[in-house]
Specification:
The longest helix has 24 residues, at 391-414. A hairpin with a 5-residue loop joins β4 (43-48) and β5. This protein has two domains: 1-107, Immunoglobulin-like, CATH 2.60.40.10; 109-384 and 394-470 and 540-558, Alpha/alpha barrel (Glycosyltransferase). α4 runs antiparallel to α5, α6 packs parallel to α8 and α8 (331-345) packs parallel to α10. The chain has helices spanning 2-14, 109-121, 130-133, 174-190, 211-225, 263-279, 285-304, 331-345, 348-358, 374-384, 391-414, 430-449, 452-464, 515-520, 538-541, 545-558, and strands at residues 20-21, 26-27, 34-37, 43-48, 54-59, 61-64, 74-78, 86-92, 96-97, 101-103, 146-148, 157-158, 172-173, 233-234, 236-238, 257-258, 261-262. The chain is globular, with a radius of gyration of 23 Å. The chain contains 16 helices and 17 strands. By secondary structure, it is α+β, with helices and mostly antiparallel strands. The strands form four sheets. Strands 2, 4, 5, 8, 9 and 10 form a six-stranded mixed β-sheet that branches. A five-stranded mixed β-sheet has the order 12-11-16-15-13. It has a four-stranded antiparallel β-sheet with strand order 1-3-7-6, with no helix packed on it.
């Protein structure tokens, strides 16, 4: 009965405007404006929502039969020429009406504001007040000193309060925290004009420092506490096991456990600290110097430990059952770390380390995520390193980057809904993988061609916000239809279990890595449909800071004043 009820719920949710898929938030006035249909009609109408007046019509074309990711035959229309600001719907005789959406220059302003503010909502160790958090108020949580795990071979307690809760749980992890910081700081350096808002509504707002940097500093200050005297970073601090989904953060009174140092965590921290040393110099020189010194200590630790520690990546001991973020190969993290150290310190020895690390890794792997970070290092070096940098190295990295962009462009042109994910890519956190691919295209659009790459990259935000086979915006609170039963323990703070707007969920997961997905679907289910809006589906409907980091990067880019 449970399975039947859930399937019925999915069908009912999809039936409201299931035949027409649009970006349910909207389109920039001068951008591409695609719309997708499941039934072939000769043409579609663009209609003002309030008046019902038709303001534009366009042809409908079949673009894909038996799309591998959805099994659908997909038709496409386009209303790019229409640029008048307003709220609209699409309709056709055979497909009915679409969700409503806006066309305007600042259509992604609220998406940037709220997606960034989710990090404030995830803050640990701080009282969240109604002035800034609305219904998500709670006293300071997890303020007790953490206890060293026996494997650390240290005794006693350590003060490591602060930082962001990583995902739907209350753990804090250096690998993912530093990676999230690094992605947002890289976006800030490439497209700075999109990230200048100082009014998103956090305690630090209106201090003449972009709120993005204020929020990142909160995480950096915690990570600095996680650095040991020898420069290495403790991998994570969590409880021995995940908490109940209904446990409020401030009611979680158990002592958290500090785990061993790892080279992956240390390298990720090196990246973020070297970036922060450059970027915060303009706003707070003492803090920038603190980050600079910490980056040097972490780099020294990596030089003293040239092999991955622990071998094969971090694994939980028997008495710990929280997330691992274990990385079998830390060479890509060392590569990006060398790039950021070179850019901060301008020393040729770091550039030599870039070359040495680049020979040991796949620069553009099949998945770009916290465990495969080399592409971000390529972008940082090619786009932002000093002009006097090694021309042969820059040429090699540029060629690899452009080859990747061409491959992504082909995916955009051939995949149903223009998504950059092939069948097989719909794994845990599939939506952030798609946006990571797209971000490399965004940066490449300026480095190489400036048009087809950018078009394909911007298209991914349409996919994320509703132009997909599920007709679902995967960002909470955005669009007519979005996730409402998210796997995140902060939902326990509200009377109805609701989630703060602006969270990107993990998305379809064809590997069916939780019991509910296994109950609902099987290997014959089209991969793009292996998703359910249920708090029990942690493998498809959880939130995570690294997923929101790339959403913030995208939204900031799209929110630039001259768009």
């Amino acid at each position: 009965m449970k399975k039947l009820a859930l399937i019925t719920l999915i069908v009912l949710c999809n039936s409201v405007f299931a035949q027409i898929a649009v970006n349910q938030v909207g389109y920039l006035s001068q951008s591409q404006k695609p719309v997708y249909f499941l039934n072939g009609d000769e043409s579609f109408s663009l209609v003002e929502k309030t008046t019902g007046k038709e303001v534009y019509s366009g042809k409908i074309y079949e673009i894909k039969q038996s799309d591998p990711a959805t099994g659908q035959t997909i038709y496409e229309g386009d209303f790019t020429p229409f640029q008048q600001a307003g709220e609209y719907i699409i309709q056709t005789p055979k497909n009915g009406r679409s969700a409503s959406f806006f066309i305007r220059q600042n259509v992604y302003d609220n998406l940037y504001q709220e997606s960034l503010k989710t990090f404030y909502i995830q803050r640990c160790g701080l009282e969240l007040t109604s002035e800034f958090a609305g219904d998500f108020v709670h006293p300071a949580c997890h303020t007790k000193d953490a206890e060293y795990h026996r494997d650390v071979q240290k005794s006693g307690l350590r003060e490591v309060s602060g930082g962001w809760h990583d995902a739907g749980d209350y753990g804090r992890y250096i690998v993912n925290g530093a990676y999230s910081v690094a992605v947002m700081l890289l976006a800030y350096e490439i497209f700075p004009e999109g990230f200048q808002s100082d009014t998103i509504g956090i305690p630090e707002s209106k201090n003449r420092i972009p709120d993005l940097l204020d929020e990142i500093r909160y995480e950096m200050e915690w990570m600095l506490k996680m650095q040991d005297e020898d420069g290495g970073l403790f991998h994570k601090v969590t409880e021995p096991a995940f908490q109940s989904l209904d446990l409020k953060p401030h009611e979680d009174k158990k002592t958290q456990v500090l785990m061993i140092k790892t080279t992956a965590a240390t390298a990720d921290f090196t990246i973020a600290a070297a970036q922060a040393a450059r970027i915060f110099k303009k706003f707070d020189k003492p803090f920038a110097n603190q980050c600079k010194a910490a980056a040097l200590r972490a780099w020294y630790y990596l030089e003293m430990h040239t092999e991955n520690i622990p071998q094969g990546g971090f694994q939980n001991p028997e008495d710990i059952r929280t997330g691992t973020y274990g990385d079998e190969n830390d060479a890509d993290e060392r590569f990006w770390a060398a790039v950021e150290m070179y850019r901060t310190f301008k020393d040729k020895s770091f550039e030599d380390s870039i070359t040495a690390a680049a020979d040991k890794i796949t620069l553009f792997p099949n998945e770009i995520s916290w465990c495969n970070v080399a592409p971000f290092g390529v972008v940082s070096y090619v786009k932002l390193a000093p002009n006097r940098s090694n021309p042969q190295l820059k040429q090699h990295l540029s060629k690899e980057w452009q080859n990747f962009c061409e491959m992504m462009l082909t995916r955009y042109q051939t995949n149903g809904y223009g998504v950059l994910l092939n069948s097989g890519d719909y794994r845990w956190g599939s939506l952030q993988i798609d946006l990571n691919f797209g971000f490399i295209l965004l940066a490449g659009g300026y480095e190489f061609t400036n048009d087809p790459y950018r078009k394909a990259a911007v298209h991914q935000i349409h996919f994320i916000l509703g132009a997909n086979g599920l007709n679902l915006s995967f960002v909470t609170g955005f669009g007519e239809k979005y996730p409402v039963n998210v796997h995140n323990r902060i939902c326990s703070l509200t009377h109805d279990g609701s989630i703060y707007p602006g969270f990107l969920v993990g998305g379809p997961n064809e590997n069916l890595q939780d019991p509910l997905l296994q109950e609902l679907y099987n290997e014959k289910t089209p991969p793009a449909f292996c998703y359910v809006d249920s708090r029990d589906s942690y493998a498809s409907n959880e939130t995570c800071i690294n997923w929101n980091a790339i959403l913030v990067a995208y939204a900031g880019y799209l929110n630039r004043p001259h768009q």
